[in-house]
Amino acid sequence: MRRNPTLSLLSLTALAAIAGVNAAELEDSLAPVIERTVPLRTHSLAAPYVDTDLQNRWWDFGGDAIINTNKHVRLTQDKPSQAGWLWARMPLSVSNWQIDVEFKVDGKANNIFGDGWAFWVTSDRAKQGPVFGSVDWFKGIGIFFDTYANSKHAYTFPRVSAMLGDGKTSYDHDRDNEGNEIGGCSENFRRRGDVPTKARLTYVKGRALQLKLQTKKSDEWKICFETNVDLPESPYIGFSAATGDVSDNHELVPFLSVCIVSVNTYSLTLKPEYRASKSNSNSKSDGKQAAMNADTNGRSGKGRREVKSGGDGWFMFILKVIGVLAFIAFAVAAVKTYNEQQKSKRHW
């Protein structure tokens, strides 16, 4: 059967259009919003991780976690039934932030992996439990780096899956969070010895929560998911891991080195047009619309004229009051002077 070149061309055009839509869905919507980042020492971690008293001023660790001051923070060893955690001591008080973590997941098993590890931004902190080493019924965001599927799914494992906890909903172990997932992706983040594996979680209040991953090449980031959610005020940052019946090593590794743990947290300064719209941004669409309104007012000058006219009104009112008071004072002085002159004439 002879092919119709016109139909083939149309098919290719359609495929290109579909590819373009998919590419557009993966565009980074937060990058144009951010003007600069400011490091937060209170929520960052680097070697040697502890002081001479084997403590850290800003971080706590517990469970089966082990601190190697020259190498890494290991949340679990390659043994069954392990659970460890690492939590920041202070709440994150800034509204817009970015957290960079470089991690390494490795183990002796070739086919069957451990449970996984979790990245937490929640109201509570440092409580061990059944969800990747931390508590269930949490309030905030939990991002699960799951290496083992407990049931059949249409997607593959390892899997990164996010859940927004309301304090009332339990994590679904049997279905690997499938029912409560607000965003996720299948990504082989395990055993990347040649390329450091990284996770970057960015939150702009009223606009989006975004997770990026680097697993294949240095400085090549993939957007795992982006969604608009409201997180608790002043949450805590934490990491936990559990091995279950089979095991993996879970190591938080430094931002720039594969051998040293590093957690880098930043406060985000938004560009002026987005700063102006932040108070009106209750959703992603509202935020974009507010930014557009601010930009339109800037070009037309209407916004500036309204502010200026209000200021001029108060200024003129104050000037009028001062003028009236000055006139009254002048009139009183004139009357007194006239009376004094009249008295002097009568005296002579």
UniProtKB/TrEMBL annotation:
Residues 276-306 are annotated as: Disordered. GO terms for molecular function: D-mannose binding. One of its GO terms (cellular component) is endoplasmic reticulum membrane. GO terms for biological process: endoplasmic reticulum to Golgi vesicle-mediated transport. It is found in: Membrane. It is a single-pass type I membrane protein. PROSITE patterns: L_LECTIN_LIKE. Residues 1-23 form the signal peptide. It comes from the Eukaryota. SUPFAM superfamilies: Concanavalin A-like lectins/glucanases. Keywords: Membrane, Signal, Transmembrane, Transmembrane helix. CDD domains: lectin_leg-like. The keyword Transmembrane applies. The chain crosses the membrane at residues 314-335. Residues 37-260 form the L-type lectin-like domain. Gene3D superfamilies: 2.60.120.200. InterPro entries: ConA-like_dom_sf, Intracellular_Lectin-GPT, Lectin_leg. This is Lectin, mannose-binding 2. It comes from Cryptococcus deuterogattii Ram5.
